[in-house]
User: What shape does this take?
Amino acid sequence: MKILILSVSAGAGHVRAAQAVESAMRERHPGVEIRNIDAMDYVPAPFRRLYTRGYVSMVNSAPALWGYLYELAEHSSARANRFAAAMQRLQAPRLFRFIKQFAPDRIVCTHFFLPQILASSLKNGSWTIPLDVVVTDYDIHAVWIEPGVSRYYVAREALAYRLKSRGIPAEKIRVTGIPIHPDFLRKIDRSSVMKEMQLEEGKPVLLMMSGGLGMGPLVRSVEAISNLPHPLQIISVAGRNADLKAGIDAIRPANGCRIVSLGYANNMPELLTVADIVASKPGGLTTSECLARGVALVAVSPIPGQEERNADYLMENGAGLKAANTEDLEYKVLTLLGEPERLRQMRDNAARIARPRAAWDIADGVIADASRAVAPSP
Assistant: This one.
């Protein structure tokens, strides 16, 4: 049996979701042949730069415009959607050739790119390989929805309801949560991590992140929080943005606050184990990882669209707060530090709505569906 997992490197979350499914699948189904690729490696370089760098540039410099386009695409005409899908399909002949050559029994994708470029083939039945879609936010946008998709894996029941209301049969939908790496299920000794990172027991730890690509006003936020009149320790994660990390390294807190400055971090289970509060952009994967570790998340300046809706989900369930700017972040952090019972309740709420086994559940579902499809007829 062969499974192809496809992601798109426009933001780090889609890739991390694909890696989580791959890891779970290799762990639970070692006999399956798996390929996990970035679809952007199979399209022309100009289109790749426009698709990936264009997204990062827009959400950094013009988030309101991104929010407008997000809402416009949600309600745009079918003709406009068909035009966008056709434009993307024309950029992907190498991707189609690779799929034909690998000949997978099933495809799993963690980005709406593939359902869009296959839209016409899915509709007329000329595409015969079953296509599973893993939605990586706590809301679902219209661009994810294609009737020809074989299976949808979604974060929560509300998304299943929305899919059904748009004509997707209930039997095609599974509510699993968003896939995070199986390492988040490991038991980690908090004291050992605190000692390794030279952090003091009994002093609150705030984990401040800017996403894998290093977006947002992290330097300004860390500097402001590090000077609050409260004993505090900060772990800063700047992602792959070297300039951002250099800016963090240059901060000299006036009150002796300890700052642990990191670039791209591949030990998120450990970091979330020691964190009392997380301040971060609320991407779908980041949100799910915080929930899995039962950590309260302060959503910092969420991008209009998917991130705002992720933040709304946290607040609806009492598992997080939203900070519109640096001053608001200072106030929210001070409030939580001054109300330990409220912080404890938020952590309990986070653990209550977590679905840390999502990657395993998706892996098992994909393999079960594929096994039924390839089983010989009696």
